[in-house]
Automatic annotation (TrEMBL):
It comes from Mumia zhuanghuii. Keywords: NAD, Oxidoreductase. Its EC number is 1.2.1.27. One of its GO terms (biological process) is L-valine catabolic process. Residues 24-483 form the Aldehyde dehydrogenase domain. This is methylmalonate-semialdehyde dehydrogenase (CoA acylating).
Amino acid sequence: MSTSTLIPHWLDGAPFLGSAEAASARTGDVTNPATGAVTAQVAFADEDDAARVIGAAAAAARAWAETSLTKRTQIVFAFREILNARKEELAALITAEHGKVLDDALGEVSRGLEVVEFACGIPHLLKGGYSEGVSSGVDVHSKRQPLGVVGIISPFNFPAMVPMWFFPLAIAAGNTVVLKPSEKDPSAAVWMAERWKDAGLPDGVFNVLQGDKVAVDALLDSPDVKAISFVGSTPIARYVYERASQSGKRVQALGGAKNHMVVLPDADLDLAADQAVSAGYGSAGERCMAISVVVAVGGVGDELVAKIADRTRTLRTGDGTRGADMGPLVTAAHRDKVASYVEAGEEAGAKLVVDGREVVADGGADGFWLGPTLLDQVTPDMSVYTDEIFGPVLSVVRVDTYDEAVALVNGNPYGNGVALFTSNGGAARRFEYDIEVGMIGINVPIPVPMAYYSFGGWKSSLFGDSHAHGTEGVHFFTRGKVVTSRWGDPAVKPVGGLELAFPKNH
Ligand code: NAD
């Protein structure tokens, strides 16, 4: 790819440049984080571009809703087959723009594929209920229908998986989609649009709108868009939730996280250390389910920190195409911000056990490098604890008791994921009940639910009451109707007459 490459929107089954062709066009740089090089520009939609793309989705909505359920799910199945056969291509695109190592990018695609597979079985979840003879000659049935156009706004850290939390179900349920991917890694969205075309999806059903706040606001305000699925940082999630709700849409807005891993004194410390390192530094900590705080309970701190530090020092940081364990951060600005937290933590009195700023990476000299960093003796008033850092920085907080650990987790404004490491089933059972977090792992560090369950946090990690995928996802993208009908028996003379009171004994 050369710097003259311009990554387009996707409109009506074809690439669309819109205002990006004008000399005064707004575009954004797309970089390869492992080299620091600008590899392409991405089109930034203006209001006219947004209206064109949303208009195409609106125009396609009725015909797609009326396409038979069998045909719709056959197309989703065809998409699944194509995606599965070509997933290495998508993984390579992700690594080139996001920086995560190839293996991890492939894992991301596989988790997205699970939702596509779940969507193939959507007919089972779109079945209504039926009650015969609720009154004389009266039957009741229910059905679920698509909403129309739905907008999906996604973050940089999972350019394929997060959109796939939503669009397979939205499309299978009979909606049309406008996806607004992150401007930092926009190519995956266009690649997936091409695969939908290959799968036989009618033009206009899946569209991509590239850009920034202008594109997002157009989706939030358009009367043609009936629902918004957003994933990103908490301040933007709150903004999206409020603005889209004001214009009458249903909204699910998933926000940021600060995920704790509580290690009880009876835990297997080798297992806990392995998992803390994998879940803390995988994808350079740029995962909403990354572990960022290890809570060492009741005197396990010294041994646990030593085990985590030993493992951390073995990690190889480098270009994701060269077999490294961990890649670069997504941009230079983000790398600098994450590094500034390491400095702030040290200044506030945390003990720097492993310093990622000294990393020698196997990659370009101008890559956005920061190695895995371990801070011990972190306290809840430090910015390394209070803020979502979203980088390879693992903090260890020490507490004396289980109750203190639970109070710490529950006192945190975020509630996305949490993990408990223990060999005591009773303690685990108690923890599941006590903890105010949406997704819980017991001896599992990143408890991302399978596609047939729903994904979502509590508190500042989710605005709205609908989690992603699973049954909740199907409900989010459909709305219910209940039909009460009366058909008289032709052999029986109908009983007429007026009755102005509510019916009592039918
Ligand atoms: P972000 O909030 O900066 O961006 C998310 C989306 O919002 C992007 O498409 C971006 O273009 C758009 N956006 C950014 N600023 C905007 C503004 N002012 N107005 C309107 N739209 C705007 O998030 P990010 O940096 O791309 O992603 C990282 C964040 O996402 C982290 O906070 C992470 O925890 C969170 N995340 C959460 C989950 C979850 O499931 N809860 C999953 C993945 C990522």
